[in-house]
Amino acid sequence: MARWLAFWIALLAVPSAADEGLPDHAALKTEIVVISPARLVPSVMVVADTEAFGWLNYAARDAAISFPVEITRRMACKGPSPFRVDGPRLVAEPVTTGNFATLCKLQPGVYEYRVEIAGRSDPLLGKLVVPEAEAPLPPAE
Asked: How many of the other CB atoms lie within 10 Å of CB of 30?
């Protein structure tokens, strides 16, 4: 079901000439991490540098996604984002139940993050992996 949901979200996110203020990654295929009350699915997400990624909150309470602030040096944003710097963390606006948040494209690397669900004492821990782009094959002779 998450794959179908990702398909529809990606389809609806394709910008038209009339769209303004969309994030630079809105037209990319979007991989989704599902926030459940007890875990992230998947907890480790591998995304190509040609893909976007985001989180869909299926928990019954608000979820706050955050990264160490150092991630800001690895971001390739060209548009608006729901994330802001808050001390040592880059934090998203709370994601309410049934809603979605994205972060702009990242340079290759491994990025650990946490999701704090309102009323839960321990955060859910996740990881985003953006591998180096594969070098193109040389032309056939």
From this structure: 22
- Write out the H or E segment, with its range, that includes residue 67: strand 63-68
Angular region, 119: left φ>0, alpha ψ -120 to 50, beta rest: left
Q: Which residues of 8-23 are buried (b: 16+ CB within 10 A; e: fewer)?
A: ebbeebeeeeeeeeeb
Least confident of 5-19, 28-42, 114-128: 5-19
Helices (H), ranges, the chain: 2-12
Phi, psi angle pair for 11, to nearest 5°: -65, -45
Q: How far apart are CA 116 and CA 68, in angstroms?
A: 14
Q: What amino acid is encoded at 138 in this protein?
A: P
